[in-house]
């Protein structure tokens, strides 16, 4: 069987409050408590859970911003935590990330063009400045933004436009998979649905997606598989239709009825 | 019965460095006693400006308001500030989106509710404390007496929003203005708060002006809905009619979006 | 930038400093006399139309000496602060960025150095090695970098967790790139304020040194040593102490006003 694109193998991440007195074993939070999960090439998978369930921590573990305390994260079969330097950098071309806060994820002092060009520079994907400019324009077009946006600063863009820039920047390295952490949570419904459309197109062209969200409606419209997370653990996982029609775990049922704002559920 | 609140040609303009923006353009509507009227629209549509303008909560430069807001026989836009202050928090109460910033972090929630009771009713002292505890019970917070001495940071988001509701209701309002009351909350908590809002509204025969960007929320608890875009009120009518036969293309677009985002299950109690 | 211009403090400070810079740069053309020209018959003359600020015990024109002294003071101020900012930024950003034992070690070093009274250190070093302008600039700079280091460290620590920095890490940026492109440009605000105030402080320190005879050595004029030379005639020649004192006062005040203005602007962000 071919290696999964991205895998978490019984991953645990524990947070201990830093200012705990050394003699007091302070209440350590197991933010991620033994999660095993895999993403295959080309898939669109949703990870659903409420705030505090550990989904953002899991996302940071999968992308290498955090190291697991137990277990392993593997990208194309390679354990992530053993990679350093050039190997780690080349892994960045396999898995990329879209952040929740479109304003916060863009350096306020860089223009759109500079922000999108950065991965091209880091990974030497364009030989000349002219090539880089051309590639930036291509990327802007692929997220349906005009080339003239390259000169603009983040504060001159709307939330939806900034998010598109974030996606374009992540796509610059042509990653095999895109992790999106609540990419539409801070956007209006109609703008958010356009972003979902964009992501759907990206997935259809072969990039795998891991869509992390508290919004079951968005996940259901975009993903084929869904995993439900709560208190650091995966409660259940399966094809979206199956999970929605016949959830195995009562909490999943609560999530589904909450997503439909079923006020009379008990 | 006459409407509780009548808004006639309300306009709000903000003066800015780059010229003025017309955030609200001649919006007219009425809120009947005992009904939930929702204003739905995206960010920038002016719906929040309407909510704040009703009791002149907008900073008056840079905002200028015109039109009439009739409440209890008086025009709120021209009422003297002292009289208006008696109405704000009393007959007209607000609940906002972010409970954490609506609550004073250095006061216990008991102190904050008692403050409302003292300002808008004649209850004082121990009776006021008892009233505060009762309101906490009304909004579904158990062990209300103990909770009175809790600070906001000790409560979860949902509990904080319940406390804000208690604060709003303690002034015995006839109109509750709720601006995106559940948007910042987790989805399971949203359901609880909306159900609470619906039940309280029925029990107390409260009128509610609900501001939301989410048609689903509107569908669940509102009787009538007005659709706003670019500062204008595009259409207004009973929820079932607007959602099934939207008159304006913008509304049609919103309804279509809502339909597409429906989960692939049947109706909720299936 | 536009709102900086609206700030009265900053504008006043900037205008004064601009005037000062013009005077310092244009010294050869502006100064009425040669600052080194000894003219004993004209010693200790009070201000007059020939010598606007009078003459010193050796008959040299005080105005000209102060104009050339401005050059010295400004140069020392800027270079000393430049050294402090350079060293402080490097240490602070390394400490803030890497954290852990590196941070602890560097910050303990900073604390230790901060506990040494800098004036005494200055006096000691200069007394041992001998005064020279380069040494003065170096020592003032090297006793002043610690504050900058703390500031930079604090900014880097808070910026490190911002999403756009995480985004750059995820894109594969190296630590150097992160610092150069993302962290430092956004961290330099408070450093700028501190630097502005620091130049005033450095000029003051140089004046103190010169007053004590350990600063710029005569005959090269500096505000401090003009003050010092005026000490012997304090009773009779008030202009010899008042005028350099005023220069120092106005310059340091101007830098402080500018610094306050910049700080206000950054606070409002």
What features would you describe in this structure?
The complex is a heterotrimer of chains A (266), B (270) and C (269). Chain A has 9 helices and 10 strands. Chain A has a domain at 98-174. In chain A, the strands form 2 sheets. Chain A has a 6-stranded mixed β-sheet with strand order 6-7-8-3-9-10, with helices on both faces. A 4-stranded antiparallel β-sheet of chain A has the order 2-1-4-5, with helices on one face. With 266 residues, chain A is an alpha/beta fold. In chain A, α3 runs parallel beside α5 (159-171). In chain B, a hairpin with a 2-residue loop joins β9 and β10. In chain B, the strands form 2 sheets. A 6-stranded mixed β-sheet of chain B has the order 6-7-8-3-9-10, with helices on both faces. In chain B, strands 2-1-4-5 form a 4-stranded antiparallel β-sheet, covered by helices on one side. Chain B is globular, with a radius of gyration of 19 Å. Chain B has helices spanning 47-53, 81-87, 99-102, 109-120, 125-138, 144-147, 157-170, 187-204, 215-221, 239-244, 249-260, and strands at 5-16, 19-31, 36-40, 63-71, 74-75, 92-95, 175-179, 207-212, 224-229, 232-238. Chain B is α/β, with parallel strands linked by helices and 270 residues long. Chain C is mainly alpha-helical and 269 residues long. Chain C is built from 12 helices and no strands. Chain C has helices spanning 2-6, 8-25, 27-30, 62-98, 100-114, 118-129, 133-142, 145-160, 163-171, 175-211, 223-231, 239-268. Chain C starts with a helix and ends with a helix. In chain C, 44% of the residues are buried. The model of chain C has no long low-confidence stretch (mean pLDDT 85). Chains in contact: A-B, A-C. The interface between A and B is medium-sized, with 30 and 29 residues.
How would you describe this structure in keywords?
heterotrimer, A: 266 residues, alpha/beta, four-stranded antiparallel beta sheet, 9 helices, globular, B: 270 residues, six-stranded mixed beta sheet, 11 helices, disordered C terminus
Largest interface: A-B, 30 and 29 residues
Ranges of chain C where pLDDT stays below 50 over 5 or more residues in a row are: none
Please tally the β strands of chain B and state the result. Answer: 10
The unreliable regions of chain B are 265-270
* Broad structural category of chain C: mainly alpha
The gyration radius over C-alpha positions of chain C equals 22 Å
Number of strands of chain C: 0
Give the % helix of chain B.
25-40%
Helix-strand string of chain C: HHHHHHHHHHHH
Helix content of chain C: over 70%
Which series of helices and strands of chain B comes N to C?
A: EEEHEEHEHHHHHEHEHEEHH
- Read across the widest sheet of chain B, the strand sequence of neighbours is 6-7-8-3-9-10
- Measured by DSSP, the beta-strand proportion of chain C falls in under 5%
């Amino acid at each position: 069987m071919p290696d999964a694109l991205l895998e978490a193998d019984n991953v645990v991440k524990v947070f201990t409050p830093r200012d705990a007195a050394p003699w007091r074993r302070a209440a350590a939070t197991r933010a991620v408590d033994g999660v095993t999960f895999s993403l295959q090439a080309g898939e669109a998978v949703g990870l659903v859970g409420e705030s505090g369930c550990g989904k953002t921590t899991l996302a940071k573990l999968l992308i290498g911003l955090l190291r697991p305390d137990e277990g392993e994260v593997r990208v194309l079969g390679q354990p992530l935590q053993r990679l350093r330097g050039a190997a780690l950098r080349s892994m960045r071309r396999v898995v990329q990330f879209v952040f929740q806060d479109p304003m916060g994820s863009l350096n306020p002092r860089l223009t759109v063009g500079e922000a999108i060009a950065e991965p091209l520079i880091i990974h030497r994907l364009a030989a000349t400045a002219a090539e880089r400019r051309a590639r930036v324009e291509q990327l802007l077009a692929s997220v349906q933004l005009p080339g003239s946006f390259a000169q603009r600063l983040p504060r001159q863009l709307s939330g939806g436009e900034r998010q598109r820039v974030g996606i374009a920047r992540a796509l610059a390295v042509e990653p095999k998979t895109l992790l999106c952490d609540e990419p539409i949570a801070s956007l209006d419904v109609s703008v958010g649905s356009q972003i979902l459309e964009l992501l759907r197109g990206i997935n259809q062209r072969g990039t795998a997606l891991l869509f992390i969200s508290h919004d079951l409606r968005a996940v259901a419209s975009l993903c084929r598989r869904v995993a439900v997370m709560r208190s650091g653990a995966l409660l259940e996982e399966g094809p979206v239709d199956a999970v929605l029609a016949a959830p195995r775990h009562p909490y999943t049922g609560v999530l589904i009825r909450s997503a439909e704002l079923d006020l009379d559920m008990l | 019965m006459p409407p509780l609140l009548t808004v006639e040609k309300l306009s709000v303009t903000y003066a800015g460095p780059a010229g003025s923006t017309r955030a609200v353009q001649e919006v007219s509507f009425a809120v009947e006693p005992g009904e939930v009227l929702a204003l739905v629209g995206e960010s920038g549509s002016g719906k929040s400006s309407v909510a704040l303008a009703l009791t002149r909560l907008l900073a008056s430069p840079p905002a200028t308001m015109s039109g009439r807001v009739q409440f209890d026989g008086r025009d709120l836009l021209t009422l003297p500030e002292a009289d208006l202050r008696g109405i704000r928090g009393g007959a007209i109460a607000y609940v906002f989106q972010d409970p954490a910033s609506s609550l004073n972090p250095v006061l216990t929630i008991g102190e904050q509710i008692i403050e409302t009771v003292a300002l808008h009713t004649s209850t004082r002292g121990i009776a006021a404390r008892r009233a505060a505890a009762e309101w906490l019970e009304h909004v579904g917070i158990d062990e209300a007496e103990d909770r009175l001495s809790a600070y906001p940071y000790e409560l979860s988001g949902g509990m904080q929003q319940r406390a804000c509701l208690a604060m709003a209701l303690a002034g015995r309002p006839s109109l509750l203005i709720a601006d995106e009351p559940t948007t910042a909350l987790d989805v399971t908590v949203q359901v609880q708060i909306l159900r609470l809002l619906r039940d309280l509204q029925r029990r107390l025969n409260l009128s509610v002006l609900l501001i939301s960007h989410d048609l689903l929320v509107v569908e669940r608890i509102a009787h009538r809905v007005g659709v706003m875009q670019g500062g204008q009120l595009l259409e207004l009518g009973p929820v079932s009619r607007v959602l099934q036969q939207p008159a304006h293309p913008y509304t049609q677009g919103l309804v279509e979006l809502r339909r597409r985002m429906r989960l692939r299950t049947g109706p909720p109690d299936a | 930038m536009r709102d900086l211009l609206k700030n009265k403090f900053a504008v006043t400070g900037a205008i004064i400093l601009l005037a000062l810079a013009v005077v310092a740069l244009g010294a050869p053309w502006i100064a009425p006399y040669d600052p080194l020209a000894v003219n004993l018959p004209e010693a200790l003359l009070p201000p007059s139309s020939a010598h606007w600020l009078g003459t010193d015990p050796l008959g040299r024109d005080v105005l000209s000496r102060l104009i050339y002294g401005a050059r010295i003071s400004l140069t020392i101020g800027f270079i000393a602060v430049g050294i402090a900012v350079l060293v402080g930024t490097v240490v602070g950003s390394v400490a803030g960025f890497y954290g852990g034992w590196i941070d602890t070690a560097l910050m303990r070093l900073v604390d230790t150095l901060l506990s040494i009274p800098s004036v005494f250190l200055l006096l000691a070093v200069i007394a041992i090695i001998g005064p020279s302008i380069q040494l003065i600039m170096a020592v003032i700079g090297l006793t002043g970098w610690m504050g900058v280091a703390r500031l930079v460290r604090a900014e880097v620590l808070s910026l490190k967790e911002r999403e756009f920095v995480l985004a750059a890490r995820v894109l594969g940026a190296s630590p150097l790139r992160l610092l150069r492109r993302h962290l430092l440009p956004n961290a330099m605000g408070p450093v700028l304020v501190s630097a502005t105030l620091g130049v005033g402080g450095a000029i003051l320190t140089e004046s103190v040194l010169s007053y004590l005879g350990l600063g710029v050595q005569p005959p090269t004029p500096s505000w401090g040593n003009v003050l010092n030379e005026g000490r012997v005639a304090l009773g009779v020649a008030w202009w010899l102490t008042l005028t350099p004192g005023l220069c120092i006062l106005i310059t340091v005040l101007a830098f402080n006003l500018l610094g306050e203005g910049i700080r206000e602007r950054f606070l409002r962000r």
